[in-house]
Write a structure and sequence with these properties.
single chain, alpha+beta, 60s Ribosomal Protein L30, Chain: A, globular
Amino acid sequence: MLGTVGKLNIMLAAAVLALSAGFGTIPAAAEQATAAQILNALKPKPLTRSLSNPAAPRKAVDQDEERFIDSVRTKPARLLSPEERARVASIAMERPSIDLEINFDYNSASISRKALPAVTELGKALSSPELKGSIVLLAGHTDGKGGDEYNQGLSERRAEAIKRYLVEKFGLKAENLVAAGYGKTQLKNTGNPFADENRRVQVVNMEPSKEARN
């Protein structure tokens, strides 16, 4: 049987695979996305119910995922355990997502002036009637410079910086924004680990399909 360390290593490996897959299908951000584009990308996918039993109860695993997300909603990024980060990444793979490339200056957790338009468009999208109240993951990433522990902390501070901006400037509820950091475990530009685009925040709508809540 696997010991505690062995199980943790497997979970972390699964999280890295999930992150390297980009949390599922994430549009390339060659140009700055508009609020409308962000809204469209983050809308929950319709749930297909069984024609033979349209009133079938939701799967227990779906309910368990919701309970888990509820349990981490109010936790600061720095307090998420490796196991919790791994599970967040796993769930995020099945959720609508977009990579906005909200870049940060080197060795900084402050939102750069260049990134403000992207954060503003994100705030507009999350304030829309279609998404307002949704639980959204803000996943922070760093470039490849520096040690693992330092980059983990930096990525957490970056995710928290975006969260704080959205709460302060757009009045979004803090408990609906889950901030998480993944350090340098997933580089957008693997060919150049030090490239600017690696310093970013990915956005994932963690809400299950609306039909699943009926």
